[in-house]
Specification:
11% strand, 4 domains, globular, Rossmann fold, 20 helices, 12 strands, alpha/beta, five-stranded parallel beta sheet
Length: 464
């Protein structure tokens, strides 16, 4: 897979290269699992071919949503990149010293100072400077203190031409956060936004051809030495199901390979029919569709549901243009929803649109949240995980440890503090509560945790 990345999304790859070679920063925007991470990892893998040093930073690896957590994640990634490329030991030791000063600071002021010192050392020592590839940047940009982004802008201006940023998000930065304090950082990329659509048909089929051959799971039915590779008919089938969405392409292909491994060769063609049946109930395929659905705005969701009834005549020009830009609607002989899997998902959504009664309800099939008969604003991934946790224990207490384990993972039990939980609770209330400052559904049980109430009449005196 890694070697194939050099041949995918070449136009997007060269777009980024052309910008950063001139010292500019840029923004990559694409929906869930459409290949943003693949593109950024490809850029990082080519460090030796280009004058700049590209450091891939997965912002999901921040240990905390703080300046220290962000700076640590960046410096860890930079140190790992330079060590892999065999950079001078003297530079690595200088960066390590800055990192130690930052993670064990005698004063909070030493955190940004240690980070800035490390960036200075790298910019002055590395030929061509550095490019920080900030992947999964959505949550970081939405929640981190604005001073971080002012600092990043100041560093960019100080080392102009030797420091650039490439951000990867599901939505444009300005739609994620609008406060004036981050405007200076946004200006760095505002005129250099690259929207990723779906993979082209040649790229999608090349991705499928790159999948490693799998041995049969039941050697008694087929030769133990035989491996399963997708043939042309099967690749065309996967393309029809998933079109150019990498996440769905891999789900369909893997399911096809799993079903065929161990099946007699005589039934290989019949396997396509079995895969179609399996896809109708596949949780992985459903999850990919739900993620895409959640990353559409309410207007785009409504427009897409209208499209399946009226076609393009039911869409406004801005909604139509946006859905085409994201690859949700494809233009061939006629405009259609991309891929048979997602098209079927949208059709089900249209058929199951219900008038929900008063209270909190989650449509698990689509991941939509309904409050008093109205669909709530689209939730972020963390917000939705939190709501799922609370919804699974309607009317029952959820303490801090349960929330952290369910939302962030058990490994974060000692790293996510009360303030971070309260901030996430506040964001969720802003989307599901008619009056966020006077919550009726998501209530606090003082000193103990939180409850989600399906009906507002269930509020108890100990809750606020």
């Amino acid at each position: 897979m890694d070697s194939l990345q050099l041949h995918l999304r070449q136009a997007d790859y060269h777009y980024v290269i052309d910008r950063v070679q001139n010292g500019a920063s840029c923004s990559i925007i694409g929906m869930s699992n459409t290949g943003k991470s693949m593109l950024l990892r490809d850029l990082a893998a080519r460090t030796g071919e280009l004058p700049q040093t590209f450091a891939y930073v997965d912002c999901n690896l921040m240990l905390a949503a703080t300046d220290q957590g962000f700076y640590e994640a960046v410096l860890r990634a930079l140190q790992e990149t330079l060590a892999e490329k065999g950079m001078a030991a003297s530079l690595l030791e200088k960066l390590a010293a800055c990192y130690r000063k930052m993670v064990q600071p005698e004063s909070p002021f030493l955190v940004p100072l240690g980070f800035n010192d490390a960036i200075m050392q790298a910019c002055q020592s590395l030929k061509g400077g550095i490019v920080l590839l900030l992947d999964e940047f959505d949550e970081a940009f939405a929640t981190l203190d604005s001073r971080i982004f002012l600092n990043l802008r100041a560093l960019h201006d100080k080392y102009r031409g030797r420091l650039a940023y490439v951000t990867a998000t599901a939505r444009p930065l300005r739609r994620i956060r609008t406060d004036p304090a981050v405007e200076e950082f946004y200006e760095l990329v505002s005129r250099r936004e690259r929207h990723l659509g779906m993979l082209t048909e040649p790229d999608a089929k090349a991705l499928l051809l790159s999948l490693p051959a799998h041995p049969p799971t039941l050697p008694g039915l087929r030769s133990a030495d035989e491996t399963i590779k997708l043939d042309e008919t099967e690749i065309n089938y996967v393309w029809r199901q998933a079109n150019g969405h990498p996440g769905l392409l891999l789900v369909v292909a893997q399911l096809l390979i799993q079903l065929e491994a161990g099946a007699p060769e005589l039934y290989r063609q019949q396997g396509l029919e079995l895969v179609t049946q399996q896809l109708d109930t596949s949780e992985m395929a459903q999850d990919e569709c739900v993620k895409l659905w959640h990353q559409l705005s309410e207007g785009e969701q409504g427009g897409l549901l209208q499209f399946v009834v009226e076609g393009t005549a039911g869409l406004t020009e801005p909604v139509l243009a946006s859905l085409k830009q994201k690859g949700i609607l494809t233009q061939g002989k006629r405009t259609r929803v991309f891929g048979e899997r997602f098209a079927a998902f949208v059709q089900r959504r249209r058929r199951t649109e219900l008038d929900y009664p008063e209270g909190i309800w989650i449509d698990v099939d689509a991941g939509d949240v309904w409050v008093d008969g109205r669909r709530a604003s689209t939730l972020t991934e963390l917000e939705y995980h939190l709501l799922q946790t609370l919804y699974g224990r309607l009317g029952k207490l959820c303490d801090k440890y349960l929330i952290v384990e369910s939302v962030w993972g058990q490994e974060y039990i000692d790293q996510v503090d009360n303030a971070r939980i309260e901030k996430l609770i506040s964001r969720l209330r802003n989307k599901i509560e008619p009056e966020p400052n006077n919550p009726r559904y998501l209530v606090t049980v003082r000193g103990r945790g939180y409850k989600l109430l399906q009906y507002p009449s269930q509020v108890h005196s100990e809750s606020r």
